[in-house]
Design brief:
Length: about 300
Amino acid sequence: MKSRSLVSINDYSKKEILEILELAKYFEENQNKKFFEGKVIATLFFEPSTRTRLSFESAINRMGGRILGFTDANSSSVSKGESLKDTIKTVSKYSDLIVMRHPLEGSAQYASEVSEVPIINAGDGANQHPTQTLLDLYSIIKTQKKLDDLNVFLVGDLKYGRTVHSLLMAMSNFNPVFNFISHEKLRIPNEYKIFLDNLNIKYYEHTEFTDIISRADIIYMTRVQRERFSDPIEYEKTKNTYVLKNHMLENTKDNLRILHPLPRVNEISNDVDDNPKAYYFDQAKNGVYTRQAIIASILGINKHK
Ligand code: CP
């Protein structure tokens, strides 16, 4: 794979996605090799993060790379009015690669156009979160032993949930059946339905899922994205629509796994955490190997050297 930015999951072909997952498996089995020695990687987080930033930083530290950046744009010259363009052009003089999270949709694409080094999109508004998707796929293949022909339930905020949008696009390479479960106001946007229609991918929309939960191979729960609502009353109306509880998993498939990009608020009850079908904390751990694979691929690092 040639060195380039990762802005959208659609930047990667099915073959390239599978190569990243293979590389992630290699890094999981060969931890702490110093493939990133001599590399400086910037992490610029204009929005809060726990898992994405820290798993990137863990991935880089474990492989001997160095990190610079900020976790709060107010601590940078953005607070003095510096533009995104000037920030990116400057940081690209100091680093070999930039990992960026930003609240504006399209910001990662813009950054990739002005940067002198590759950009990895760590989430741009409600648009895309491609590195989350690659770790989600890695979690699915680890637990299901395949990616093809799975019945995937996407539950919660399907309108603003960027992890849903990226996952839907990537899984479409693998002949899934999607069940979309959401409040009427948080339905999957039409553009994604058109995307699926063009590929002849089957999908169904629901407002309840207790009656159909026995069909699921993957249940992907998501948080209602409070920070994307312009009207706080709308958030209050929709925030606790779906709460997955342990008893709801009684008649589910043995291979079912519960995923969640996290953070969760109330959408998965704590009593699910000890169920063997709960996989969300292992999913977060898989972020380290997957992000190592993404960085290595973008920097053109060959594991056989
Ligand atoms: N999944 C995810 O993006 O989590 P953070 O917001 O904690 O990075």
